[in-house]
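Researcher: Structure prediction, please.
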Amino acid sequence: MNSVAIPPKSGSAFMRLLRPRERSTWRNFLIALIVLSVAMAAALVSAAASQQGRVALAAVTTVIALALAAWVAITIVPSMAKRTSLRWIAYQIDYRLTRDGIIYLAAVFILVLAAVNTGNNLLFLVLACSLAGILISGVLSRVVLTGISLKFDLPEHIFAGQPVLAELDLHNEKPFWPSFSLRVIGERAAKDQGNQEEPAEENGILTRAVFFPYLARNSSTTQKVELRFARRGVYRQDTFGIRTRFPFGFFEKTRRVTSDISITVYPPVEPTDQFYEILPLLSGEIASYFRGRGHELHSLRAYQPTDSARFVDWKVSAKSGHLMVREFAREDERRLMLVLDPFIGPSRSGADFTERFERAVSLAACIAWHFYELGSVLQFRTHTFSTPLAPAGEIIYSALRALAIIEPESSSRGGAFIDSLATETEIFKIILTARPQRTIPTSLWSSSYFLFLDHQL
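Model: Predicted structure follows.
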């Protein structure tokens, strides 16, 4: 499984203060509170003495108040500052005023004008309640977003065009408070326009919002999300957003959390019409190439002087009137090399040829998957990547991963890469290339089956 676990950026400050190692912080806080209380009392005495004309007492108490305050600032404040985590500075929350919030603020502005112009105490009371509602909304929504960790799980192998089921897990680590109305979004699945949301970034993973109506304290909730990736390639999700409009919907707060999740989407392996068209030809070429001394009957042919008499089929020979010899399939008949040549040349750039190259990649994936299902011994090669010759089940996903990230090369340096395969005559090769047929070495034609991007694809 591909997964990412994102811890909460901010937990419960109260619970952190209850840890045993924070006893010194509590002691310093209480000392500072007592000393500052004495300083405040001295300042009040100084003010009273000044009003009564007792200058000496006022001066002494003022000096005492300032000295106590300075002592707290010099000795206690720095030690407490060292114990303070600054993670809250990087705790990024984005705010957006909703349509309901705009209407509400407009009503508050009207109340302000009415209260100031009329001096009506009832209007001031209503205005205070309205402003308190905004304050409560901000505090509660921030409480809802804190103490939340996120985990995102995806299947290990993902193919383009096929739906996959991912799991999104939210864990509420707050010991006392639940969370309400949370929405998890991808990096750019943001900025609602009414009920419509903008799509996520082109190569993002989570392309739609996932809603969690309620998350109890110290509990987890999992939602299953169906995802579909239209194209092969590497997909990344650098940022997730946890969003809420709780409690009144005046403001929309989004807590953005970074992630390092990256997945590779393989090309589709579902057989296409084009694959079914070439499969009989491909099977025939392979069968024609591998004729040997195995145990499976391959064909019958006329007897030649160099043939052994033990391979003569006497029954067929009697019926036909001349000697016929049995040919058997070699035991290594399914030892194959699949080659994709990405060099398309500088003159073939453009959307049309790029689409042909994508079809070639998909066809190569279909061929590799076909021989994987047959249990063949397979090797996959490109200009920069090569798997060992091994049972297809051992190298299939390495080959698909290479096909997922391969890109067409506009240079014409692919000649040496294809020519080097001519020396490997003991293995049958299936080669997808954009090279002109006339440039293919003659020795390769006898041991290879070619699929040309200019013609077949």
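Model: The chain is about 40% helix and 25% strand.
Researcher: Thanks, that helps.
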